Write the structure tokens for this entry.
Amino acid sequence: MLLERPDREAGALLLEARTTTRRIARTFALACRMLPREIRDDVYLLYLVFRTLDDLVDEHRPEAEDAIRAVEAWCADGAVATREAALLADLATRHPLPRAAVHDFCLGMRSDLTAAPILTEDELERYCYRAAGTVGVVMAALLGTTSPAADGHAAALGKAMQRTNILRDIDEDSANGRVYLARETLERFGGRLDPGTREALLRDQIARADALYELGMAGIPLLRNGRFAIAAAAAMYREILRQIEREGYGAQPGRAVVSGPRKLIVAARSRRIVPAAPGRLA
């Protein structure tokens, strides 16, 4: 396996995984620090797999198709042809990785490769599941669960975070010629994304995301490990929605940003909603 190579090589890989997480996903990286030590590095490695595929697609790199195909091959028959597939194979020796969820993530990457339009809320829901709900399901497998129902909650939390990303990045995505909101919803609210005219649209979409957060966070007690970390990540990410509201629902263009001190306050408060389980790591 990949991590059975010399210590120097394995250490370099872990360093890349940690650095990538902290550089690109600062909120997630903050939550990762709260994970049990014996799980944290595997979460960083998993993030590196998903981040690498996502970056290849976002940057329109010619090798994106081959990278996705290699991970799909691992999902199908365990073939290891790339670093990402090798990482997944290694993680699967320690955790029951759900290959169907990883394959569905690849389908989400393929949607981005083709820039497939999102026409309905059902299609947006499917896209959010593939792009991030799947990550929630795989994360739940790494953390361990006490009930099969945990997967549905984990998927809901991932979808909530993806919807938050979409609302946070409306202006940036629009400038790049990409709209991730459902066309039917845009048309229902006037068909425009101009700052100052989008409040009703954002209210509708924030309510949908909040409902998913409620469903997702209800499943945190079903995790064996890392409950506080996941609750903190969810609370900090959800705070982006509150920041959008505070800033007037996009009255001014640009990304809504939650300050570092505010994130820490929100994360600390999230501990109150996490029940402890005897004999388990929170």
